[in-house]
Design goal:
alpha/beta, Rossmann fold, seven-stranded antiparallel beta sheet, 24 helices, binds adenosine-5'-diphosphate, binds magnesium ion
């Protein structure tokens, strides 16, 4: 597309056009074109509306024209909901007429097969050569309440009226955009602009995201993502949103294989690796969520409620039902939330209303002394809001007298306290009067505890994202000078020209796989401590090496055909003397003969390391998002529990620390059952250095893992005892 012209209009006018032509306009609201014009008029579009229909002189009282090129002016936008067969002609007509951009609702293009893809390419080429933008195809258009430009055939527009608000949305699914718009609106959420990008043939998701980040009306952003076309640019846009203090809430499909397949057949876009996506979201301070409805509720809460003062604070549930508060409190840890620890001041206030023994979270106002009522509840909430450990108050209300009156006091308490108050009304339509009070006060509410928890969790993640410094200090560590010609590096040459093993498959196969010994040499050039070791080819060699290194030692059979050495009996630990070494050496030879005959490339003699905790470090290169590092804790448990976290490389020490601390098994670091705490700093240092290795090697590194890095007690460092790598 060398002959692309400068676009005739910017995204601002594509999203908020001054004039709109509806191609295929009709009086019949059962037709796409009929619905589009109906909705535009119904929702008060104030720009010029131009129906295009060759068979009618007027539509809905407006003069109609046979073609866009026959209209008296070239509109900013033409909406095309025409059959695929007419698309090429219509787009060409719009391009010739000087239209700024086409919103192509027509589907069955690239997502349907090669024929559709060819047609899609053609219309994009036509548009680009004229400087005309294309949104879609296979999209549901734009919902822009700020400018009352509802450029869509979505049935969500049967509802309304829709006031303007601050939630911007970009969706790769049109139907989902309409659904979320309707769902959110029912809950009092209000939107700035929602854009369905469909196949992204021209206008892409990231471009709209950048637009929303810059858009004054937009204060928080929802993204429904199937695949990202420009990963680095997307990552940067998320960071820019964070810097602009516009929280971004994202649902991305691709967590499951089935999700990936559905997305592929849906919009012909490739779903990237979910773990890498999650890593860059965390890096940029964006909030990745599971449920699309909760995503909209969270984006709304980020606007209509005060934000959490900071991450890591507790939650104070209060209600007049011991049951509902108990259930709420029980579900909190699963959502990564904890009960607040009330201060002495707060406890003193509560002690004025209830027996000392009942002063605890979750707070059941049913245990107030008799005679205490509304005023006492309000005083409790005020005390919570003032408590330094309370980040948010939760109010899971149940059926009770005066529900509406009780709800009515909450908005003011929340605003005055400047902390979120999460109100749950689970009682079906019985609670409508209470909901009505809250709607009048422009205050959000949730019908289900699960939604409330998802919102709280998202607000907590938002606060954590806000706290993230924007990587100002990713500083390359000064590398230790390349290691002295140690026993390890002297032996390196001998093993580098690889002997390929016929028995190899997967890891053990090709010349691009580095052995443990080779990988450790690479690690040590980045200053990551590795075991002293030497490759031996005879028992006499091994004995000499063990004497140099010092007993006790570890013996490992080296074979490119083997992925997990210990599974096959190739790892012999804690060898204390020469006799034991001879036995171990022979046992390794025998084990290799049994499992992969002829593949023994030597026996590695290495120092026996001791420590408190085994950590896992990994490095890889994501095709889209670039170099990544992984962290895990717990030796074999790492694999069994999939307890690893990923982050883009290079990484700061703070981020590396946060990564380790976010692991399920992080408590192991603190020293359980009388063990001394492990040297987390050393693990952090090693991960930072590995991240630079990953950044430096870029796509040349397929993967590298250090498993385990043994962490000694605090202050005593860490050491890589096993490692392997694959280069491209
Ligand atoms: P693999 O992962 O291929 O089975 P490793 O070299 O990781 O083989 O060895 C298996 C386990 O043995 C390690 O996870 C670690 O617990 C222990 N180990 C290996 N090498 C050493 C060493 N040099 N010092 C102490 N323990 C070791
Ligand atoms: Mg290992």
């Amino acid at each position: 597309m060398e002959d692309s012209q400068k676009p005739r209009i910017g995204l601002d006018r594509l999203i908020g056009p001054r004039s709109v032509a509806v191609v295929g306009a009709s009086e019949d609201v059962d037709k796409f074109g009929g619905r589009v014009i109906h909705y535009l008029m119904k929702h008060g579009y104030a720009g010029r509306l131009i129906p295009i229909n060759p068979n009618r002189a007027t539509i809905r009282g407006l003069p109609a024209y046979p073609a866009v090129s026959a209209a008296p002016e070239a509109p900013d936008v033409a909406i095309l909901a025409v059959p695929a067969a007419q698309l090429e002609t219509q787009v060409a007509d719009c391009a010739a007429a000087g239209v700024g951009g086409c919103i192509v609702i027509t589907g069955k293009l690239a997502e349907a097969g090669p024929e559709g893809a060819a047609l899609e390419e053609k219309i994009v080429a036509t548009a680009r050569s004229a400087g005309m933008r294309i949104l879609g195809p296979n999209c549901l258009g734009i919902l822009n309440p700020v400018e009352r430009a509802m450029l869509s055939s979505s049935l969500a527009l049967d509802g309304g009226p829709f006031g303007a608000g601050g939630i911007g949305m970009v969706s790769q699914s049109g139907a989902l955009m309409g659904t979320l718009f309707a769902f959110g609106s029912d809950h009092g959420a209000r939107f700035s602009r929602c854009v369905s990008v469909g196949n992204q043939a021209d206008v892409e998701l990231v471009e709209v995201l950048e637009h929303l980040v810059a858009d004054e009306a937009t204060r928080s952003i929802c993204l429904y993502v199937e695949g990202v076309k420009h990963p680095r640019r997307f990552h940067q846009a998320l960071r820019d949103a964070r810097a602009a203090d516009k929280p971004v809430f994202i649902v991305k499909v691709g967590r499951s294989e089935a999700g990936v397949r559905a997305a592929r057949s849906h919009t012909a876009s490739l779903a990237g690796s979910y773990a890498a996506f999650e890593a860059i979201c965390r890096d940029a301070g964006a909030v990745l969520m599971e449920d699309t409805g909760a995503m909209v509720l969270a984006a709304d809460a980020a606007i209509r409620l005060p934000r959490l003062p900071r991450a890591g604070m507790g939650v104070a549930p209060i209600a007049s039902s011991g049951g509902s508060t108990a259930v709420f409190a029980d579900l909190m840890p699963g959502a990564g939330l904890r009960l607040a620890e009330l201060s002495a001041e707060t406890r003193a206030v509560l002690g004025g209303f209830m027996p000392e023994s009942h002063v605890a979270l979750p707070l059941d106002t049913g245990s107030f002394h008799s005679g205490q009522n509304e005023a006492a509840m309000e005083t409790c909430i005020r005390a919570f809001m003032a408590d330094p450990d309370v980040g948010a108050v939760a109010f899971p209300m149940t059926t009770q007298p005066f529900m509406a009156q009780r709800a009515a006091v909450l908005p003011a308490l929340c605003r005055e306290g400047r902390k979120p108050l999460i109100y749950v009304m689970s009682a079906g339509s019985i609670g409508d009067a209470a909901r009505e009070r809250l709607r009048e006060a422009d205050f959000p509410y949730y019908d289900r505890v699960s939604d409330a928890l998802a919102v709280l969790r998202a607000l907590e993640a938002e606060a954590a994202g806000r706290a993230r410094r924007m990587r100002p200090d990713v500083v390359r560590p000064s590398f230790a000078p390349p290691p002295q010609p140690s026993p390890a590096s002297q032996e390196r040459e001998s093993s580098l020209p690889c002997k390929r093993s016929a028995a190899g498959e997967g890891w053990g196969g090709g010349p691009n796989h580095l052995t443990e010994h080779e990988t450790k040499s690479l690690l040590s050039t980045y200053g990551i401590p590795v075991t002293r070791e030497r490759l031996a080819h005879t028992i006499a060699d091994a004995l000499a090496a063990a004497r140099d290194i010092g007993f006790p030692v570890v013996l490992k059979g080296v074979s490119r055909a083997v992925v997990h050495k210990s599974d096959l009996g190739l790892v012999r630990l804690d060898i204390r003397d020469e006799a034991a070494l001879r036995d171990a050496y022979r046992a390794i030879e025998a084990a290799v003969d049994r499992h992969a005959p002829g593949t023994l490339d030597g026996v590695l003699v290495q120092e026996m390391a001791r420590g408190e905790v085994e950590a896992f470090l990994g490095a890889t290169h994501d095709a889209g998002f670039g170099p990544m590092v992984l962290a895990g804790i717990g030796g074999v448990l790492v694999e069994a529990l999939h307890d690893v976290r990923m982050a883009p490389a290079p990484i700061t020490a703070d981020d590396a620390r946060a990564l380790f601390k976010s692991l399920k098994l992080a408590p192991l670091l603190h020293g359980l059952r009388g063990r001394p705490p492990a040297d987390l700093d050393a693990a952090v240092e090693a991960l930072v250095r590995l991240s630079w290795l990953a950044a430096d090697l870029g796509p040349r590194l397929v993967e590298l893992d250090v498993n385990p890095l043994i962490l000694r007690r605090v202050g005593e460092g860490a050491i890589a005892v096993d490692a392997r790598a694959t280069l491209a």
